[in-house]
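In response to reviewer comment 3 from the previous cycle, which asked for concrete evidence that the modeling workflow produces usable outputs, we include below a single protein chain processed end to end. The sequence was submitted unchanged, and the resulting structure tokens are shown without manual editing.
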Amino acid sequence: MTTLSRRQALGAAGTVLGAAALGAAIPGSASAARLGRPVAEERKSLGQLYADALREGGELVIYAGGDTPTQQDATKQAFLAQFPDIKLTMVVDYSKFHDVRIDNQLATGTLVPDLVQLQTLQDFTRWKSLGVLQPYKPAGFSELYPAFRDPDGAWVGIAVVAFSYMYDDSLGNAGPATPRDLADPRWKGTIASSYPNDDDAILYLYKLYAQTYGWDWVARLAAQDIQFGRGTPTPIVAVASKQKKVGIGGIGSLTGPVAPGVKWVIPDGHPFMAWGHRAAILAGAKHPAAAKLYLNWSLSVPVQQASFDGWAVRTDVQPQGGLRPIWEYPNAHLDGFPAFMADRAEAERWRQTFSLYFGEVQGPPSPGVLGLHPGR
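The workflow returned the following structure tokens.
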């Protein structure tokens, strides 16, 4: 959910810091993580965990991946409605900025967040190997879909996120029936999209399209005079405001419109993409009790039942609206996205290739420029 030169610079910095500086900054932590000490699933109630968090000081800082400063406001409000005495600071930025920001904070001994929830799935594997995550298994851990949990409790998937295309629902059955139709000349000048070379999830969605429909299809799509924007809400806004008829690369739901007048589509037999959005407590967290409260609340049955898109990460929660569990949609490519995120060289090849077709990313980052220590 930057320009390429900045992306490459930050990625290189993160690699160096992750491989060397982090290990030096936290002596012995990686070796402790390799011991694989068993972690029991949480047995305390939310009320007991809330009391623990208040005794700790009642504060919590979360770095959340997202596109706009207010994108997590609904989550924050729902949490505070149940736990009003917690001072929750939720800092939203692109995950690709948050991850290197955390790397730098760890390397300089200036860690701000207690908990992170990010799209950059590969970072959780790397951070686990470096011993900078606190193993923890919230209540309900054993009910999570296996791909949505680290076996040692280093991280958990707290929400299902899915991206596809959408169109103005006033089109009815005349809207594009499959992603293949997006390259039809009838839609020229009517499409808005998130940049595929800016957000890794949209990059993966475009990769699936290219592999399914071929490079000639990509060339025809590139000739469609697409309005590209930074941040995954941009195609939703463009369609909802009637600026465009079709959007590519936005979040959505099959149980109701993501915005008035917007129909989100995942045709059978055609690709879309989904993943379990990962969250973890940092080993150096100042407020680990509050972080545990948040994870247990996020994975609780009521919260999962009220998920935005109808899908839950728990196997014991029935999806809304007659949906099947997300892992029963082979065209969601649940396993493919984590593998794609783990191969950074391959991701860069796809990013640069799509830059050749669609041009360089333009415009400032939609969350703003937050610097090294937001939330401090």
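Residues 1-21, 24-35 have pLDDT under 50 and may be disordered. We consider this sufficient to address the reviewer's concern, and the full set will be provided in the supplementary archive.
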